[in-house]
Amino acid sequence: MRLCIDGLSFLLPLEYSYVVLLESKSGAVIMKVTDRDYALSLDAKDPLAKYKSQFVITDPDLCYLDGNSLGRLPKKTIESISNFLTNEWGPEVVTGWSHWVDEAQPTGDLLGVAALGAAAGQILVCDTTSVNFYQLCLAAIKARPDRKTIITDKANFPTDRYILEGIATQFDLKLVIIDNENPKIAEHERITTDVLAPYLNEDVALVTLEVIQYRSGARSDIKAITDQVRKIGGLVVWDASHAVGAIELDLDANGVDLCVGCTYKYGNSGPGSPAWLYVSKRIQNQLQVPIQGWFAQEDQFEMGSEFKRTESIRGFQIASPSLMGIRCVQSAFEMIKEAGIKSIAEKAGIGTDLMISLFDAWLKPLGFVLNTPRDAKQRGGHISLVHPDAAKICVALREIANVIPDYRTPNSIRVAISPLTTSYTEVWDGFLRMKELVESGKYKEVAASGSRVT
Question: Residue 137: in which H helix or E strand, if any?
Answer without folding.
Answer: helix 129-142
